[in-house]
User: Fold this.
Amino acid sequence: MEIEIGRDLFAHEAELAAANRRLFKEKGITALNLLAAPGAGKTSLIRKTVPLLKYSVAVIEGDPASSVDTDLLNSLGITAFQINTEGGCHLEASMVAKALESFQPKPGTLLIIENVGNLICTAAFPLGESIRMVMVGASEGDDKPFKYPDIFQGADAVILNKIDLKPYVDFDSERFRRGIRALGDQVPIFEVSCKTGEGLAELAEWLEQRVDQLWKEG
Amino acid sequence: MEIEIGRDLFAHEAELAAANRRLFKEKGITALNLLAAPGAGKTSLIRKTVPLLKYSVAVIEGDPASSVDTDLLNSLGITAFQINTEGGCHLEASMVAKALESFQPKPGTLLIIENVGNLICTAAFPLGESIRMVMVGASEGDDKPFKYPDIFQGADAVILNKIDLKPYVDFDSERFRRGIRALGDQVPIFEVSCKTGEGLAELAEWLEQRVDQLWKEG
Assistant:
């Protein structure tokens, strides 16, 4: 059985993403889509980077089940809103638009959308974001760009997290970088540890410059 | 937009899985579906456990792209066949049936099917396997059973890999076990390290007993 819905579905999603882009602009929000496998450290990155940013930040958490991450962020004073996909493998633009009906970030907010932990399906569903960051943990291995190329295409930044684990895992940074460079010649690669804080200041600085630039471009 | 294909699709997949089950029986093969997130150590587990098994083993590798894992296993003398899903997020029963047209494991073989790295979509597509193992790396965090409950439902064994990293990551074994126990009361949980080899003998012993039992049951 082949289901011939691929093209229509993606065209439809692209329209919804464009609608979100207009919605974000109306609301004065800059949206960031944070993509990674389960357990790469997406919530830890948000938790450790948000205090370094000058912007007001709000977070949308996408998970198939539970509100573990939202509860944690809210307990730390970071505004977070949970989307449960009820087993679904990715966020869709319409879910984000719906969340923004009941959750009103103030103008000037950087909206960080933590997507569902998934290196495949999330790649195919744009959310209308202006910034797309893809994160890998060093403990996941240096072969991820070769096995999951689609997710790295069009990333504005690639983050290698858990570099504190490098001495304990067989991670070849050169192989990883070679894989990323083959997919995105110019994309910046940040090596960070959400545990030790290493590299987060550089990432936060890049992110602020990127958001400032987007504001200037309107 | 809602696409009302869910029920039909899953019924269709269940039929294809049942057809695979008959095919495996005809060929005298026992099939194992190995499920995990990207980078959990599926290929390392196969590489380190196969030499401990008395059975002849063949491997099907499912990946969205590349033949990295198949090349590695073949170079180690483990018979492996690559299925590239071309970006697809899970293996399907029909892909396995097709692979078995060009790849003929001898009767008595344990066929290990390494599914695509994905904790969500793979859960919904049975392959006709008799044994279903779900693996998590300690570096992925102890919250996986809470966030990705579907994949753990119906597992015959849960494997916690990378226990050598426990001293360096915040992993609460009790919380992980509590999460697994809430989903599968009796499922055995094996703590292993594919790096140090710890726990692999116990896992191999359990697996042999399970395969023996399946053979007896016919």
Notes: The beta strands of chain A are 30-36, 57-63, 79-84, 110-114, 131-137, 157-161, 189-191. Chain A has a mean pLDDT of 95. Helices of chain A lie at 6-27, 42-49, 68-75, 93-102, 144-147, 149-152, 173-183, 200-217. The longest strand of chain A covers residues 30-36.
